[in-house]
Amino acid sequence: MNKQGTSETVISIGSTTSLLKRDWLPIVIVIAAALIALVFVGSPSIWLTLTLAGLAMGMMVFIVASGLTLVFGLMDVLNFGHGAFVTVGAYLAYAVLTMMTGLTVADNLVLNVLALIAVVIVAAVGAGFLGWIFERIIVRRVYGDHLKQILITMGGMIVIEQVVMMIWGSQEQLIQLPTSLRGAFVMGDAVVEKYRLLVVVFGSVLFLAMYFSLSHTRIGLLIRAGVEDAEMIQALGYRIRRLFVGLFVVGSGLAGFGGVMWVFYRGTLTADIGGELMILAFIVIIMGGLGSITGCFISAILVSVVANYVAFLVPEMAMTSTIILLVAVISWRPRGLFPLTKR
Amino acid sequence: MISSLLSEDLPRSRIVAFTLILLLMAMLAAPVAIGGLTIMSVFVKIAIFVVLVGSFDLLLGYTGMISFAHTMYFGIGAYGTGIALKSMGASWEAIAIGFLAGAFLSFVIAVAVGLFSMRTKTIFFAMITLAVANAFAVLVNQFYTITGGHDGLIFQIPRVLKPAFVIIPRDVFGVPINGTTLSYYAILLICGLLFLLMLRIVNSPFGRVLQAIRENELRAEALGFNVLRHRVVVSCIAAVLACVAGALNALWLRFVGPEVTLDLQVMLDVLLIVVIGGMGTLYGAIIGAGVFVFAETYLQGAIAYIAPMIAEVPVVSVVIHPDRWVFWLGILFVVSVYYFPEGIVGRLRNRAAELANIKK
């Protein structure tokens, strides 16, 4: 379709040389969407609250989707069971949090943040380990067969969710944030929830870390090259399989991390908590362009912010608006906002 | 005659053929020989699942695409009929209008989703159908004034189809022959005809092209077949068939709600039945649906019966528990995709073919 435009973006994202050459249009669209929403919402304070909530949601979707898009881009493996790692991360957070009430009940920001970081580490490591097993038992045997991949990873997800129910029960559990992270502070007449701000910080830091490790490290170089042409990387003598397993484990760990963020955001947890986020993650991957971290980040924010504005203006249309947005973006750029691959 | 009815696509395995005949006879005889709503409900569920699963197999087994929106079309058929019967009263016109509106909506959505998602990359079809189905389920929940939301809708059906409409009183056969019996046979007949229609479709030149696309998309394209158009057309056919199954389901249950139509659980049941029965064999839909519905009805009961006896044993009592039904389905699903991808019918057919070879 627009071959000219897309090949240009491949170059500009592929190299980090010139900032001017970069494709700024999608970012402009996010800002434009926010400004248009300001006109419709009317009140700037409500708009600020909505935007922050949307940003926080976008960060969580990004955290979950980032691993998935790299795995998909690199090895063409589509993991429909990714949501299971979100669930496992969320439940691990719940388990760890109930064990260290001392740190979370204390009204001390440092202790609380330390507790949260400990929770995140446990959840990410646990989900990553599970991802490693999942790759070995479930995914390894179905490389190259999309149909079986979708079926088998879906089946794996059901089994994991059921095991979670066996361990923690199927009834809804309540989970509370560490004391000093609860509540909000008021800026002007806008209410800014502390936790949302924290999620935005976490997500942005993760994005920057991923962006720089992809563009400035050797592993990152290999991953980017692998996303573009896996066979060539193998021909040059790199073991792409090992790279892939590593990426799969990291992706699962990130899903666990996302699960922690998501469960505190919701406040309640059930075994299907991962499923809700997965649908958004899929949309974001398609919209962002396979294997593109920047695309994933921008489209996660775009989707969540727009869904949030629409949910405020016309509550019934929130999910539908997301799909309309996807259709619009894909009609404009059929291979996503920042396409990396030629596939 | 039978051969041409089945579009010359015979079961090709004696065990399959025998089981099918047995099942068909049991279905036809059940209301008179056994009687009672339980057994009729089991068979109606099998018949409806045959259409739902068979139409899904047109996509998965014959064309090689996974749609997660299939139960959405099932739901559209059910809700269309249900809403019309609720708002217009129990009349045949309501059924017709509700069903046609549902079928039209299914068709439109199938065209839109198909054209949009397959224009980019085929694998996106699975993800986009999942998202669309989810959006639809959310919409149904939000417009609860029309759809009944979480609780669903209970509605009346025309009097002829209700148990109060007595055709032959109880004292003739020992079981009453009434409107319920009538709707039982009507549903069986419609489902049977739709099954023959699906056999016809997959054995037509159009169906052969679908299988060619499944085997090698590029080659099919190179041979001059429009892959995109075939995929969109088959997803429309599947959608409308699922819609019919949904309408029949609504008429039988006199109820429509998210749990029996739109839930992801229903989609997983459908996937499991296709895989167990055998992808790419429509007979697999019958065998799979039969096995699944019987297991669901009787095995689940058996587990509930055993559960209290083993309540003391530590790990076993957690694993063998009525609530863990889905866990076993998941295990069964994963194992069958690995070790049993051809399904029951595929396996039996292969064996029959081997035996025939040895005889030669």
From TrEMBL, chain A:
GO CC, alphabetical: plasma membrane
Superkingdom of the source species: Bacteria
Pfam families to which the protein is assigned, alphabetical: BPD_transp_2 (PF02653)
One record GO biological process: amino acid transport
Membrane topology: Multi-pass membrane protein
Keyword rRNA-binding (UniProt): no
InterPro entries noted in UniProt: ABC_transp_permease (IPR001851), BCAA_transport_permease (IPR052157)
TM stretches of this protein: 24-41, 47-72, 84-103, 109-134, 146-168, 195-214, 243-265, 277-303, 310-332
Molecular function as annotated in GO: transmembrane transporter activity
Compartmental location: Cell membrane
Keyword terms, alphabetized: Amino-acid transport, Cell membrane, Membrane, Transmembrane, Transmembrane helix, Transport
Alphabetized PANTHER family for the sequence: ABC TRANSPORTER ATP-BINDING PROTEIN (PTHR11795:SF442), BRANCHED-CHAIN AMINO ACID TRANSPORT SYSTEM PERMEASE PROTEIN LIVH (PTHR11795)
Family per record: Belongs to the binding-protein-dependent transport system permease family. LivHM subfamily.
Protein name: Branched-chain amino acid ABC transporter permease
From TrEMBL, chain B:
Protein's recorded name: Branched-chain amino acid ABC transporter permease
Keywords: Cell membrane, Membrane, Transmembrane, Transmembrane helix
Lineage of origin: Bacteria, Pseudomonadati, Pseudomonadota, Alphaproteobacteria, Sneathiellales
Membrane topology according to the record: Multi-pass membrane protein
InterPro entries: ABC_transp_permease, LivM-like
Record's keyword annotation contains Cell membrane: yes
Signal sequence range: none
Localisation per UniProt entry: Cell membrane
Single GO term (MF): branched-chain amino acid transmembrane transporter activity
Record-level GO cellular component terms: plasma membrane
Record-annotated membrane-spanning stretches: 15-39, 46-74, 94-116, 123-144, 182-202, 232-252, 272-295, 302-319, 325-341
Keyword Repressor: no
